[in-house]
Structure formats: structure tokens, C-alpha cells
Design a protein that fits this description.
Layout (H helix, E strand, L loop, with lengths): L1 E9 L16 E6 L2 E8 L7 H14 L5 E3 L5 E2 L2 H21 L3 E10 L3 H8 L1 H12 L3 H31 L4 E4 L7 E10 L3 H14 L4 E9 L7 E5 L2 H10 L5 E2 L1 H15 L10 H19 L4 E2 L2 H5 L2 E5 L3
Antiparallel strand pairs: 1-3, 1-4, 1-5, 2-3, 6-8, 6-9, 7-8, 10-13, 11-12
Helix pairs in contact: 3-4, 4-5, 7-9, 8-9
Length: 326
């Protein structure tokens, strides 16, 4: 039976977390030496949907109550225990290093947006804006309204910069690391993840409550946690697409059985031939060089430091462990 992968923990003996997995299955560990993959059995044709995403997240929170955890993204399925053990063997040191980083730590996300009362606050505190607001109300002149809009936006931007700095400084002092996330809507002005020691979790939330009171009628806060430390572990596990691998192999002119030294040699030769600095008259050289570089990176991740096969059956049965960028 296939195995659904939730995460990686430090573990030398098989452990069970109860029947809290997808399909009410038991979540347990598969070990290699001192690292364990947290999995549950899943049938080959099992359909996954929104409810399974919730089960995945709930299981991760349960596991991280007692273990440092490298959380996996939703939907990673491994064929069997042998494949899991091979994965753990190949990436054991990467996993151990990541687990040391998040030992006794959790992630808390903090979002911040403007309170609807912020404009009234700005009007009360800024004489120039109050004067323009009165003129705009009494006068139909568009230039006054435009000037008012510019002044309000400028005041908001000044406050935004000030508030974000003050709030991040206050929360950074209670965390080991922080990472800014993408802002996906116009109402949010700050979206940051913090890596917090479990012993300081309540202190962090208390500080957040203190900030909410301080910036009342100016800002709205939204804190979410404790969460698995997704943002602070740059490890990704995924299956390799054979078509991409085959394209990379052909780009470097390699056979289906290849060593890491042969990959390096082919790349060095082609890189010298197509490097843009050496082909200033060829407008296509830059794109060709980028293609060669991408092929090299993919093949070296796959082959690591040993002789490898790029035949389809071998590629299809390999799971890649790599560090995510950013």
C-alpha cells in the first residue's frame, strides 16, 4: 500500500500518533537511523479534497506538539517503505540540520491592515489635511480633491513605514527569525511569519495584544499560530518529471547512463561555447546558455554524487529532495 507523507521528525524507534490521518488511518513513523518519516497508509485510488487538506494540517499540529517537524506540503505520496527509507538515507543530513534549526520552535503568522477609522485619525491629527478636506467639501474644484488625495496617501505611507518598523521591531525581539510574505490584497499592509521558541509563545501573543491596544482605531491585527515552521525550512520533496529530465539530458548531449563528472564536463564545455559574454553577436546565446544551466542544475540534483540512470523507469521511481530558493 502507498504511503502518504506528512513530515520528517527526529526518531530512532517506530512511533504512532493515532488514527488521525487521511481516511481515519493510523499515522506512524518509518525510520532510517535517527530520522523518521511520518506517514499513513493510503489506497492507490483514494480521492483527496478540501477535507483532506484540513486533516493534513490538523495532523501536523498534533505531531509538532511533541516533535520538531519538517512539514511536507499537501499531497505527497510515496510508493512504499523501501522508497521512504531510501529517501531518508539520501537526505538524512539535510533533514537533521533542518530539524536542529526548528527544535522547540513554531511559526506564528501576523497580518496587519488599516482600521477603517484611520482616515478620521489622520484628519484629527493633521491640520493641513483638515483644511483641504473642508475646502474639498465646500468647493467643487477637482484640483483641491486631487491634492487632498495625494496628502492622505502620503500620510498613510508615512504611517505605514513607521508602524511596520515599530511592530516588526517589537515582535522580532521575541523571535529567532522572521520572514516577510507576499501581500495578496490591497487591504493588508504587513504579512510576516515569525519563528518563535515554544517557551516564548504566550509572551509573543501578549505582545501582540499589547500592540493591538496601542494601535486601536489605526490598525487591525490578525495572528495565526502555532503553525508548523513552513517558512523556515527550505526543503522540498517532489517527484521528477521524466520529460524534463530527458530534455535536460539531450541539452547536455548525455547518454542514459551518466556520472556526475560527465555532467560537469558536458556543462563546462557547452557553457564556454554559449556564454553570452563570448557570443556578443549572437542574440540567441543568452537563452541557450540559460537552457544549458537549467539542465545542469536539474541533472546534478538528480544524480548527486554517483553514477545514475536517466532511463524512464529509474527516473519515475526517484523522489528529489532539494532546498527551496528564497
Amino acid at each position: 500500500m502507498e504511503k502518504y507523507l506528512y513530515g520528517i521528525i527526529k526518531s530512532e524507534n517506530k512511533e504512532s500518533f493515532g488514527n488521525i490521518g487521511i481516511g481515519n488511518s493510523e499515522i506512524y513513523t518509518v525510520q532510517f537511523m535517527d530520522v523518521g518519516a511520518v506517514v499513513s497508509d493510503i489506497s492507490e485510488n483514494y480521492k483527496v479534497g478540501i477535507e483532506e487538506v484540513k486533516i493534513h494540517e490538523k495532523a501536523l499540529r498534533k505531531i509538532m506538539e511533541t516533535h520538531a517537524l519538517i512539514p511536507m506540503s499537501f499531497g505527497i505520496v510515496v510508493r512504499d517503505e523501501l522508497e521512504i527509507k531510501d529517501l531518508l538515507k539520501r537526505a538524512r543530513m539535510k533533514f537533521k540540520k533542518a530539524l536542529e534549526k526548528v527544535h522547540n520552535r513554531l511559526q506564528i503568522n501576523v497580518k496587519m491592515s488599516w482600521d477603517k477609522a484611520i482616515l478620521a485619525t489622520i484628519l484629527n491629527e493633521n491640520e493641513e489635511i483638515r483644511k483641504l478636506a473642508r475646502e474639498a467639501k465646500e468647493n467643487a474644484d477637482e484640483t483641491v480633491k486631487i491634492e487632498l488625495g495625494i496628502k492622505v496617501r502620503s500620510a498613510l505611507n508615512e504611517r505605514k513605514t513607521e508602524y511596520i518598523k515599530n511592530i516588526q521591531d517589537a515582535l522580532k525581539s521575541l523571535s529567532d527569525e522572521f520572514e516577510e510574505n507576499k501581500i495578496l490584497d490591497q487591504d493588508t499592509i504587513m504579512n510576516v511569519s515569525f519563528l518563535v521558541d515554544k517557551q516564548r509563545e504566550q509572551e509573543f501573543y501578549s505582545k501582540l495584544e499589547e500592540l493591538e491596544k496601542k494601535y486601536e482605531k489605526k490598525l487591525n491585527f490578525f495572528g495565526v499560530g502555532p503553525l508548523p515552521p513552513y517558512n523556515f525550512i527550505k526543503i522540498e520533496i517532489k517527484r521528477i518529471d521524466f520529460n524534463h529530465m530527458e530534455e535536460a539530458r539531450k541539452t547536455l548531449g548525455l547518454s542514459e547512463e551518466v556520472s556526475i563528472s560527465e555532467i560537469n564536463s558536458a556543462y563546462n564545455q557547452l557553457a564556454r561555447e554559449y556564454h553570452p559574454d563570448l557570443n556578443l553577436d549572437d542574440p540567441l546565446a543568452g537563452e541557450k546558455f540559460k537552457e544549458i544551466k537549467n539542465a545542469y542544475q536539474l541533472l546534478t540534483k538528480y544524480c548527486e554524487h554517483y553514477l545514475c540512470s536517466i532511463e524512464k523507469p529509474k527516473v519515475d521511481e526517484t523522489i528529489l529532495v532539494e532546498e527551496k530558493s528564497g
